[in-house]
């Protein structure tokens, strides 16, 4: 792949629109590969912390949504006229 890119210089030139896209994809693939190689599987303690944090976030967002809905139902009925 690298040899074929070097044989066509417009693919490696970032000033060329095609080269810009190709080089962006190559850099993205390189960065993604490096990220996946550095990632590690969380241990049980870390996984539990993440799960608890997500559960608390879901509960807070649900409470906020329920409160907003509870407040706006009477306001909507007043505006619409709730006949």
Give a verbal description of the structure.
It is a single chain. With 83 residues, the protein is mainly alpha-helical. The chain is 78% helix and 0% strand. The chain is built from three helices and no strands. It has helices at residues 2-7, 17-38, 44-80. It is elongated. The relative contact order is 0.05. The model has no long low-confidence stretch (mean pLDDT 87).
- Note the gap between the termini: 71 Å
How is the main sheet built?
none
What string gives the helices and strands in order?
HHH
Which whole number gives the mean pLDDT?
87
- What is the approximate shape? elongated
What structural keywords apply?
mainly alpha, 78% helix
What is this structure's SSE topology?
Blueprint: H1 2-7, H2 17-38, H3 44-80
